[in-house]
Structures
1.
Amino acid sequence: MKRIPAEKKIIQNVQIIDIAEEGKGVGKAEDLVLFIEKAVPGDVVDVELYRKKKNFAEAKIVNVIKPSEYRTGPFCPHFGVCGGCKWQHLTYDAQLKFKQKSALDALERLGKVNTETAEPILQSFETRYYRNKLEFTFSNKRWLTAEDMQNRDDLQELDALGFHIPQRFDKILNIETCYLQTDPSNEIRNQVREFAMQNGISFYDLRQHEGALRNLIIRTSTTGEVMVIVVFAYPTDNEIESVMSFIKAECPQITSLLYIVNQKKNDTIFDQEIITYSGRDYIFEEMEGLKFKIGPKSFYQTNSLQAYELYQIARNFADLQGTELVYDLYTGTGTIATFVAKKAKHVVGIEYVPDAIEDAKENSIFNGINNTTYYAGDMKDVLTSEFVQAHGKPDVIITDPPRAGMHQDVVNRLLEIEAEKIVYVSCNAATQARDIALLNEKYEVTRIQPVDMFPHTQHVENVVLLKLKRTGK
C-alpha cells in the first residue's frame, strides 16, 4: 500500500455509508472505497488520505461537515489510541443496529440463509465494566501520546502498564482508568505500577526480552471473587517476594493471588507453571445456582452476565425435554454442558485442551451432576463414527467453535450423524455462515438470535438453530 506523498490528498463531502470491523467508517469517492478513522455512518466529512491502493484508501477526518445522528462522544480518554472499544463514538443503539446487520449480512451472503425471522439482537445489560478478565503488559518503553510529544524534552518516566498499541507489539499505552472491568481492577493495576516504579523494579523490554515484570492478569466474578496473576520475566527472588507481599497486604479482597515466571518469547501462560502465593488457585462463578471453577488457564466467557443470557438462548433453542442425548462440541470447561445437563438425559462434552476437560469434570462434581461425560482431543479426531457408535447418536448437538469455525471433517461428521437439531453458537458470523452453507445439504435454519457480548466493539455472538430436513415432503 502506497503512502500519500507530502502534498496530502484531500477529498471533500464524503458520505459515510457503513462501518468496517476495525471501527473505521466506510465511504466512496473518486472510484475509491475509503476507510476513515473515527467516522460514523451518516457523517458527511472532508478527509485526508494517508494510504492508498488501486481501489481503496485509508483516511482521517479533517472536517465534519454534518455529524451523523449515530455519533456520540467517546467516554474514555484513551479512545483512538488504545486498541480496544473502537465503537465508542457510536451510540449504543447504533452499535446494536450495525452488529445485527453484520451478523445477518454474513448469513445471507455466505450461508444463503433467509434471515427474515431473525430476532432482534440481545443487548448487553452492562455497556461498561462488563469484562471479567483483563491482561495488562508492563513495558519500559511506553507509547508517547500527543501531549507527551509536545513535552518530549521533559519526559523522565517511560515505564507503562497497560495495553498494546495496535500493530505495535513493542509499545504499551499506559492506562490510568479502564472502563472494561469493575473495581478493584483499576486500583490493583495502579497500585502495582506505582509500587514497582517507586522500588526500582524493572519493567519488561519487549524487544530485548529483559526486565522483571512482564504481565498482570486480573479476573473477577459476579460472586465478588478476584484472581490476580503476576507474570515475571527475569526477577530476583527478592523482587518476587517484594511485589507479591505488597499486593497481598494492600489488596486483601484478592481471593486467588498467583504468579508465573515466563521467560519465553511469547506471553502465553498455558505451558507455564502457576505458583500460588496466597489463597486458592481458582475462583468461582455462579449461574442459576451452578458453580463454575475458574483457574488461571480456564476459558470462561468474559462477559459473565451476558454469558448467562447466551446459554439460556442455546438451551431454549435446544428445547430439551429430559430424554435427549446431547453432544456439546468445543465444550471448554463444560459451562454449556453443565448448564443444560439438568434438562437432558446425558451430555457428552468434547474439547481440545486437556486442562479444560479436567475443569469440566470438576464443575460437574461441584454441582452434583452425574449425567455428563467429557473427552479431550482434536474434534476431528475424537468425533468419529466409532465414537458415535460407542456413545450413542445424539438427539441434539450444541457447537461453540473458535473463531475459525468447524473443520471440514467435523462438518462432514455432523452431516453423517443426522442429529435432529444443531444449536450453533458462534463469535464469528462469517465462519458460522460458511459452515451453515455446508450443512444446508441436510439442515435448514429455523431460528437466529444475535447477542451483544462486547459493547463498544464490532464483535457479535450469534446463535442459530438448525433442524434436520424431512425427506419425502
Note: The first helix runs from residue 92 to 111.
2.
Amino acid sequence: VTGVQTCALPILSVSQDHNLQSGAYTIAPVSGSIVSPTTWVEGTTKGLGFTLVSTNATAIPAAWSSGNAYAAFPVSSTTFYTRTGYSGGNTDTLTMRVKLDVASSQQAASYSNTVTWVGTTTP
C-alpha cells in the first residue's frame, strides 16, 4: 500500500498508591477528579492535586480552567490526556502543576506516597 501514513498518539495516565501519609497521619486529596476538576481557591482549597496548564498539541479541555482547576490523583491508573491527530513528527509538550495546601492544624511530619505517570503511544 502506498501513501499510507501512521502516527503515534500519546495517552497519558496517572495513579497514586495512597493519599499522602506519615504513620497514622494522612493528607486528603483535593475534592476534584480528572472528570471534574475543582477550581483552586488560594487559602481555601486544601489537599494534594494536579492540573493541566498548557500544551502545544491537542487543546486542554476547558474543565481544567487553563490550569486553575485541580484533580486528585486517582488510586487506579486513569487517563487524563490524549493527543488527537498526527503530530507531524513534532514533540508534544504538556505543562502540568502539582499543588498542596493543608490546614494549620495538620500534623507536621514527612508525608509520602508514590505517584505513577504512564505515557502510552498507540498507532
Note: The chain is about 0% helix and 40% strand.
3.
Amino acid sequence: MAVVRTIPTAMTIAGSDSGGGAGIQADLKTFAALGVYGTSTLTAITAQNTVGVHAVHEIPTDIIAAQIDAVLSDIGADAVKTGMLASSSIIQCVASELERRPVPWLVVDPVMVAKSGDALLWEDAVDALKTLLVPLASVITPNIPEAEALTGKKIESDTQVREAAEAFITMGAKSVVVKGGHREGPATDLFFDGTTFHEFTSPRIETANPHGTGCTFASAVAAGLARGMSILEAVGLAKEFITEAILSSFPVGQGHGPLNHFHKLWK
C-alpha cells in the first residue's frame, strides 16, 4: 500500500556551508521553521565560516543526479529550490534531472558570490544558468549584483529594476523577484510575473549578521509554495520571515553572523 504523505515537502539543491549560516543548512532550517519537511541534494562542500570561503569541493554530477532521483522517486517534492551550483556541468546535470522529473514549483536562487565576497559560481557557468535553468524557474530571486550579471545591464534606478525584471521573463522564467537589499533606502523587492509588478517593502535593518539572507529568502518562497500558497503569497511570507530573522539575528564567529531562523521558537 502506498504511503500517503501528510506534510508538505521541499527539496534544496545547493552547496553546504560548514559554518551553518547559509547554503543547505540555512535552507533546511527555513523549511523546518515554516512547517515543511526538507530534503536535500548536495552540489558542493565548502570549508566556510563567518569570515570567508576557504575551500570548495564539487560533488561529482553522477552523485548529484543520484541524490535528486533518490528523493523524487520516493518522497517527492512539492517545491524545489536551487542555490549554489558552481559549474556549468552541475547546472546541466540539475536542469536535466528536473526536466526528466518535473516538479510543481522551482525556485532558482542564482547564487554567485558569498557574503564574504568569495565566488560561488564560476564565470563560465553564467551562460549555462541563463540558458538551462532560468527557463525552468517558476520564480528566480536575484539580488541586484546577480541581476546585473545575468542581464548584462547596470541597475541603479527604479526603471532599471523593472527593465531587469522584464529581462528575466524574456529569458523564460515564469516570474522574478529582484531583491533590493543592495540599493539605498527601504528594502524593496520587486516581483514581476510578466503581467503585473508588485513591490514588497520593509524598513532597512542595519545588522552585522546578514549571512544566509539570499538562501533563506528563496527557501521561504519554496516553503510557501510547498504549502499551497500562490507565488505572491509565498513571496510575502518570505519577506516577513526574512525581516524577522534579520531583526533577531545574533553574532557567531568573527565575521558575518547568521540569521535567526527559529525566531518564533527561541526567546
Note: The longest helix spans residues 231-247.
